[in-house]
Write a structure and sequence with these properties.
By secondary structure, the chain is of the alpha+beta class. The protein contains 14 helices and seven strands. It has a four-stranded antiparallel sheet with strand order 1-2-3-4, with helices on one face.
Length: 338
């Protein structure tokens, strides 16, 4: 060893080599850029052993693959092509929950980010995935009506369409898929909504099937925890449709809603929306529900009574649905009545 590495501790080297023999390691490599190594953390060594044993027994990982070792299907050679760190972890969780069911599962991780090149300035991320997020993944898998896998059937089928190139921008698409995965695993709905906003030169789009899956996820992950009936979402969806129609040629109103930081600003943007409705095209007027604004106002008042900052959740939901209908209007077939 000394002839190659003057400052390397032989004992540390031995431990490192032994760790690489662990068949339950999760890794993802991006050639020429960096690799991610996912290390689960348990305070109880027996639980750590049981978790790794499940990973091996159910054939979730294929450690003969070079760049990724999460199997597309258990005990097969094909592996997933995830776009980044968090999408890899979310993809793993889906495989584990689908195959190991109720076995012990890791929610604390140390993730090593190892760059390519001679100098290895390794970065370390510590991630805690809340039980509520894991519960959402489980519920979608077991009881989902429109989908059963959050990454595979939802995030992985959301794309960014470049109006400048008139085609899918795959680099931005993979960034969006990765950021959606990160926001979900970290239970950050604010960042989640920002991923879906239209941006310069294009917009986020998806099929009607993916839209239904997204709506179901929103209800399970966010809306239900607020203790409000599902039908109350209709008012938010309808106002989102109004914002999308108004924003078709200029998304400034949508961005303004996204940037609202106080409830007074929120009411101000809603008043601006109301003022713009009479000036909408007759065709668009037939496709909206103007009374939805009154319903939304009452809904927000009810939400704020229960939780002072509950209006923020409604704001974020408005941004999601506005972005969704904005994309539908931009696509060839246009939007629908709401």
């Amino acid at each position: 060893l000394r002839e190659y590495y003057d400052n390397l501790c032989p004992f540390c080297y031995l431990i490192g080599i032994l760790e690489w023999t662990d068949d339950a390691l999760i890794y993802r490599t991006f050639p020429g850029d960096k690799s991610f190594l996912f290390l689960p953390y348990f305070a109880n060594l027996r639980e750590l052993h049981d978790f790794k044993k499940s990973c091996i027994y159910f054939g979730i990982l294929n450690n003969t693959a070079r760049y990724s070792n999460i199997c597309v299907y258990p005990n097969t050679n094909d592996v997933e092509n995830t776009p980044g760190e968090y999408s890899t972890l979310l993809c793993f969780y889906e495989k584990f929950i689908a195959n190991a069911t109720d076995d012990v599962i890791a929610n604390n991780w140390t993730i090593l980010q190892i760059p390519f090149g001679a100098v290895k300035n390794v970065k370390i991320d510590f991630i805690n995935v809340k039980e509520g997020v894991l519960g959402t993944i489980r519920e979608v898998y077991k009881n989902g009506q429109n989908f059963n896998y959050i990454y595979k059937e939802l995030f992985n089928k959301i794309y960014f369409f470049s109006e400048n190139k008139n085609t899918i921008d795959w680099e931005q698409t993979r960034d969006i898929q990765e950021n959606l995965s990160k926001a979900f695993l970290l239970d950050d709905f604010r960042d989640f909504t920002n991923c879906l906003l239209p941006r310069k030169g294009g917009y986020v789009f998806f099929s009607s099937e993916v839209r239904q899956a997204l709506e179901e996820l929103i209800f399970i992950w966010r809306w239900r925890r607020m203790g409000i009936p599902k039908e109350k979402l209709d008012a938010i969806k309808s106002v989102g449709n109004i914002i999308a129609k108004i924003s078709r040629n200029n998304a400034s109103l949508l961005y303004k809603m996204d940037k609202v930081r106080a409830v007074e600003e929120f009411w101000s943007v809603l008043r601006e929306i109301a003022r713009k409705i009479p000036g909408m095209d007759e065709k668009d007027l037939k496709m909206i529900k103007p009374t939805a604004l009154d319903e939304l106002i009452q809904l927000v008042k009810d939400v704020v009574k229960k939780e002072k900052d509950g209006w923020k959740e409604v704001r974020d939901l408005l941004v999601v649905y506005s972005s969704m209908y904005y994309a539908i209007d931009k696509m060839p077939k246009g939007g629908g009545n709401q």
